[in-house]
């Protein structure tokens, strides 16, 4: 090999990258083929230097490699031209993959194949807005012991949430929003400070396990399910930031709940919550986006000294049993004269 040729190779890639680049390069071409050779990936051709010093190869298909030339990050997004295709199983051969993102691929259908178990180095597993469906099996994530972000929102997954997710020692964020998942919420799904559990818009039933009292959650959102019981212990959690319990069948007395000082968004709308709004909601000094509409609450709305409820927030208190006081009409004058 001539020295000049060798130097040219070095300039586009380190020498160790080259051979490995070719290996995972063929896998990437296989993925493209399994996706039906979409127009958006037309720059993925034989000989293309996927790792060749470029972090990204285009907005539709983005590749980042390790220093040894294996694919480390893969993002495939907004591909509309492909014919309907199942999950490209060749992805499972990218065994050094740490982050997988598949977004806006509505033509992708069928289940997540069990071979994703081979991707044991993943810390981000993000599949959003596809047509993928079927149940999430208990064994699907058992090998993912480094996973921190599991995001499967806006797909068509059904069946129950695998309880085995709780065995992932590092899982910080779980987002299963907008699927057709049913059954109850398993305990201990996420861990670590500021973790988030986002389960909105599914068909979940039952009560929220009490163990979530001990998980240092930042975000907890379960709106638009069919959940029942008394999850008021969540409202007192230290360091919680966002709680959305709206559109469920929760039924509890709010009167004596100590509202956490850290909450900035609290949506309790469209449940069967009764009693009074506790004074503790009014003592914080930061903005609270509070929504309690359509419950069975009664009595004085506590008035905040700092950052009062704004007039436009009247709707957030509407359709209760007998709430009164600003931003609703005063308590001694509950509405216009007949
Ligand atoms: C829910 O998911 C479907 C399918 O991906 C999508 O079309 C819809 O916009 C999503 N809804 C929301 C509120 O994100
Ligand atoms: C959940 O949905 C599946 C179908 O997707 C059904 O077979 C199962 O009985 C449902 N389970 C519950 C608890 O509703
Ligand atoms: C709570 O979640 C629902 C969607 O499920 C959304 O419409 C609503 O705006 C959320 N509430 C807040 C305060 O963000």
From TrEMBL:
Q: Which organism is it from?
A: Rhynchospora tenuis
Q: What Gene3D superfamilies does the entry give?
A: Ribonuclease Inhibitor (3.80.10.10)
Name of this chain's protein = Uncharacterized protein
Q: Where found, per UniProt?
A: Cell envelope
Q: Which residues belong to the signal peptide in this entry?
A: 1-19
Keyword flag Transmembrane helix? no
Pfam families per UniProt? LRR_1
* Swiss-Prot/TrEMBL keywords: Glycoprotein, Leucine-rich repeat, Repeat, Signal
First-listed, main subcellular location of the protein, grouped into a coarse class: other
């Amino acid at each position: 090999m001539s020295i000049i040729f060798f130097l040219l190779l070095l300039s586009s890639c380190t020498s160790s990258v080259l051979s490995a680049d070719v290996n995972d390069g063929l896998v990437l071409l296989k993925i493209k083929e399994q996706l039906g050779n979409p127009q958006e990936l037309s720059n993925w051709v034989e000989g293309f230097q996927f790792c060749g010093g470029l972090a990204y190869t285009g907005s539709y298909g983005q590749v980042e490699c390790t220093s040894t030339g294996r694919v480390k990050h893969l993002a495939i997004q907004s591909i509309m031209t492909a014919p309907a295709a199942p999950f490209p199983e060749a992805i499972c051969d990218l065994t050094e993959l740490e982050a997988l993102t598949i977004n806006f691929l509505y033509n992708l259908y069928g289940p997540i194949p069990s071979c994703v178990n081979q991707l044991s180095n993943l810390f981000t597993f993000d599949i959003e807005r596809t047509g993928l469906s079927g149940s999430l099996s208990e064994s699907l994530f058992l090998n993912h012991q480094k996973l921190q972000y599991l995001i499967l929102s806006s797909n068509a997954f059904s069946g129950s949430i695998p309880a085995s997710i709780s065995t992932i020692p590092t899982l910080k964020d779980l987002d299963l929003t907008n699927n057709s998942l049913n059954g109850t919420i398993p305990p201990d799904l996420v861990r670590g400070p500021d973790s988030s559990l986002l389960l909105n818009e599914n068909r979940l039933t039952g009560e929220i396990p009490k163990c979530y009292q001990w998980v240092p959650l930042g975000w907890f959102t379960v709106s638009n399910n069919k959940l029942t019981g008394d999850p008021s212990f969540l409202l007192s959690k230290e360091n919680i930031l966002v709680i959305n319990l709206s559109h469920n069948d929760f039924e509890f007395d709010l009167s004596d709940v100590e509202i956490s000082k850290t909450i900035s968004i609290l949506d309790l709308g469209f449940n069967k919550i009764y009693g009074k709004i506790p004074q503790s909601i009014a003592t914080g000094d930061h903005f609270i986006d509070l929504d309690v509409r359509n419950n069975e609450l009664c009595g004085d709305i506590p008035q905040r000294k700092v950052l009062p409820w704004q007039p436009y927030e009247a709707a957030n208190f509407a359709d209760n049993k007998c709430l009164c006081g600003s931003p609703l009409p005063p308590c001694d004058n509950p509405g216009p004269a007949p």
